[in-house]
């Protein structure tokens, strides 16, 4: 048993840090730090291009598709260093969701057509899984796709579409056989967002932002060639995708970054000269969450180690999701507490309002990507065997 | 021991609930929220006509003196209705403070205008201010007021700011027109959608602007009443958040059944109810304590209530959003607005931690 | 709305206090205080006789049966003052469980025969509800009662029989119709513990004490005249009993007493001169539980007030059970923390070991009398309507 | 990064688990627990024969130097088996402390006897003692030792007490025969069924009883190793408590289904698992930290582990009993014995709060 990284891994980490210090544009870093989303599409794609130029565009892809071929440990180091350095999060919908499906189940033509746009930072993808009536219970989705010659004709509605307002492509689960049992009649198709009949309607959120959308499909024609794999076999691909979505699910890097921010706030003297950190109750809450984060780092490394030996991501990722999101949510609540009344000034640009925005926005963490209740069901059934 | 409400109290509650139902539906509120002003002066006048702005004022001063319980019921209904108007700041805190200042022409006229909804008077503070934040110095022509308050709810829409300022170890109270030269207000919206401002004062006001040169007790009383009403506001908000969550749990179907049938969620809803009822009890206790002569005991009850209601507010707000799933994250349902109101609750009128510490010191002496 | 007691109620409370100061024997009080259970039968019955002599033997009974006829508020005041003064808890099995059933459903003969022994402190009753396989799911009980002339013949086993080792009588739920649906074939019978064929076997508990027993029935003959009400209608009586069991379920008096003890421990200087109460983290936990207890007192009064107007004890009692037991359990855990290492010295007589004994023993609170999980189910179904 | 165990480590674990399975079943343990001695000297000698008492000692001193990880695996298996014998006190803390004292006839002979299981040596302390608790003063014929320790695990069954005593600002270490005149031990059982005693010392020991006049570092090292092993012991106990609860949930039928089918209980079991795995991670971290040169970082990892494992221990102990229902309250199942062991865990080797404070001070500097 050895918890430390190897000298090679430490060298790699230092290389990543040096690269981040050098290559991450200051203005992008500043906008990420201040939650300024006005240029989110440009920033994310620009950063993707910078990474791609370095050969690091897809840390989780195999070399044959242009990925780095890194092992899980290096992926972990890379993602957490990026997050800690306020780099924009790489868009997961292309890189981590649809790409693994295309690599595994797509035709060579599909692979050549779609993968380069993702890694090179040209195409913005979004997800078309959830529907208003099908969230946790994904298999109850209703969006129809009727065959018409070489095309499917799509009608229906997708919901909780994150950042789809910027998207070039959307991958959709659609119902191609309405007679079949829920999980049997589903297909997996790739849809050009410029197709006639698509309407994107932003949903205003709790924190006032518009991060997710409803996407309406009204007789949208999609070439059958854009279907992945077999007709009505989409559920298999969907589950494969959901398994890959769960990489770096603990969000250690983001929590480290926010914890650092929390400590900055709490150690800055307030108007009356006192510091939050000198309140033992508050300091203990900060120390407690830092302790749990430290434990989760080790837990995360344990899961990575086991996955590397067993090859497949297991249900242990559910533990990382639950505790990782709880920790980040608690840090964000502590940031609000540390600001006190200043956090009320919401429409004022400043750290107080940023903390409040973060607190409200991050309530999503325990809801999306498989709610924490669903994760507990997974643990119950797949680990505890109940 | 009697937990029933008098006919008059019940009438006040019904009236407020009717007002909320009739004037403050989701769409109506959204229009007010989206407006440039961020509140409705028309509805404010209507509250004045209903007498709701005169609740906290003795009959001798033209008020209706509804007592702590009447105020509690009104505030609860307004919290349930997510009112954006400055009811507690103006019609509880400011009226109480002004009414307790020595009678005189300026004070009497101001009070009358407040009760009628003609003058919106808003205090700079929600708790007794730390000495020195705003300093008052007497000059030949009047009083010089200097200082700064970073977050003052409703300041940009007030006609008059109620300024507590220290001089010679005492707290004096001033009525300062918002538009006076030397009053600067940087306006913003709060996280719960109220209009608020950063207020900087540097001006000389006339002698008649001073409502009292020794207003510490009057202010203490005003903030106490405001705190109790604020707990009631949160209580109403929590009630609605839980109710909305229960309705959602009954109607939202996943895996072929309403999610309210999942026992793990049921038990969490049961715990939310227990927290709500505990918060209700402390709100009742805080309200009752306002008639308590011993100020130490009163402040303990109030601090205890603020702390416990604050804890319940956080838990119920978080769980309500969580159990709504993605829908809880949108601003299209009441629940996210209650989440924000309850989040603000913890930060206003003294934080949860500050009040828990005050309760601890009263209870344990350490 | 008025949260204070009336002048008459305050006068009554003072009268109870004066009586307790005067009439509660010092040795009994001391044994209760130190959890010394060696004379538990004598102490409880002696105290019952003292109360009865005062006319206060049954605070919750109507006057016609010798009770005080007090309203719920006076009952509440009385019980909490007794608990706070370290009086022995009156045995609930006779007074609060079987007596209401006998009064409501028993024959005049049964009332004359059984009630005086309860109120006068002569008969010790115990409960025969639970069985090893029927705890939360009471209706699945199996103990058979077969008719043989004027007698039933009982065979089977009861579990979780509290203090039955001292008992004169046991009330039992027995299955008189094994063919019927679970809740239909049950009868309610009163059994003399001296009957041949009864074996009481104590169960050693977590804290080393023997507070509960298994009671085995081997061809035990019980006169049919000892059956309450109709044959096979016992489930109705059982539910009536369970409703009455829930009086004073919040345990405010006990929590107040233990909180006082906690404060005594925490304010006593330790060997090094420091006091636990001066640790702000610990002090805040004490203050927090005291705050919740204060809220629960008001909640309890609200429930009493509503019950007085609606007559029947409602599902709100489940809230009192959950929060009341959580609070008392937390206080007991804080007592252990306040003692620190001294609480480890378990077989030594002293406050440290008493705190540890209390902590372990009181884990039962959230399990018995309808586990807190069952209470949450009740709230879910009967209050929330889910 | 490598979370696998070496063949030697795996062998140690298997050996200990076989020992527990063969010698320490529920009935066997009950007999030992009920015995007047409260432990089994026979099994202790057997542990010596297996080499398990020599784990923490360098090979040069006749030990097998299994390293922190080997010790962790053995301690975990012993916690799972609810061992009553003084493994950590004697075979981790005492051996480490003695082994780090200057070589010499007395120290060498004592160590050899300890490894063989012939002499049971038990330290008075579990953390570095506050100066002055036991005072040492040099006299003509030897050292006078005076002081008192209220709760010393295993003291009544020890052959030799390892006494840390202060003199001239330093900590000296003494080997004191338990039966020496001037050693008084009031014997009792602890809440987790160990034999323990209140130790009062007032005697003069010979010069040769002093193992080191400056043992602060050796003791610190010993207590650090003891603390890491103690976390591992709790980890084993928690694993078994959770496992027992899962088995109970699968087999116990209420309302026609196993209670493990009730979702509210399922989610609580899932949370228990998460806590267990977090505790495992911190135990690994604490164990690794023993090879950490920087003593501040090491102590932080150890304190963090003790605090987090303590929190998990309480939660898992309480939930295990609760989910067992009435059966959890009896001493007829393992679960109540794990409850007691885990309750004791929080109180020993420094409390959860004390270690959380130490972690906080290291992490935040406040």
From TrEMBL, chains A, C:
Residues 6-121 form the Acyl-CoA dehydrogenase/oxidase N-terminal domain. Residues 232-380 form the Acyl-CoA dehydrogenase/oxidase C-terminal domain. GO terms for molecular function: flavin adenine dinucleotide binding; oxidoreductase activity, acting on the CH-CH group of donors. It comes from the Bacteria. Residues 126-220 form the Acyl-CoA oxidase/dehydrogenase middle domain. InterPro entries: Acyl-CoA_Oxase/DH_mid-dom (IPR006091), Acyl-CoA_Oxase/DH_mid-dom_sf (IPR046373), AcylCo_DH-like_C (IPR036250), AcylCo_DH/oxidase_C (IPR009075), AcylCoA_DH/ox_N (IPR013786), AcylCoA_DH/ox_N_sf (IPR037069), AcylCoA_DH/oxidase_NM_dom_sf (IPR009100), Mycobact_Acyl-CoA_DH (IPR052161). Its cofactor is FAD. It holds the Pfam family Acyl-CoA_dh_1. Keywords: FAD, Flavoprotein, Oxidoreductase. The keyword Chloroplast does not apply. SUPFAM superfamilies: Acyl-CoA dehydrogenase C-terminal domain-like, Acyl-CoA dehydrogenase NM domain-like. The keyword Oxidoreductase applies. One of its GO terms (cellular component) is plasma membrane. Belongs to the acyl-CoA dehydrogenase family. This is Acyl-CoA dehydrogenase family protein.
From TrEMBL, chains B, D:
Its cofactor is FAD. It comes from Marilutibacter penaei. It comes from the Bacteria. Residues 6-118 form the Acyl-CoA dehydrogenase/oxidase N-terminal domain. Residues 221-358 form the Acyl-CoA dehydrogenase/oxidase C-terminal domain. Gene3D superfamilies: Acyl-CoA dehydrogenase/oxidase, N-terminal domain (1.10.540.10), Butyryl-CoA Dehydrogenase, subunit A, domain 2 (2.40.110.10), Butyryl-CoA Dehydrogenase, subunit A, domain 3 (1.20.140.10). Keywords: FAD, Flavoprotein, Oxidoreductase. Belongs to the acyl-CoA dehydrogenase family. The keyword Flavoprotein applies. GO terms for molecular function: acyl-CoA dehydrogenase activity; flavin adenine dinucleotide binding. Pfam families: Acyl-CoA_dh_1, Acyl-CoA_dh_N. This is Acyl-CoA dehydrogenase family protein.
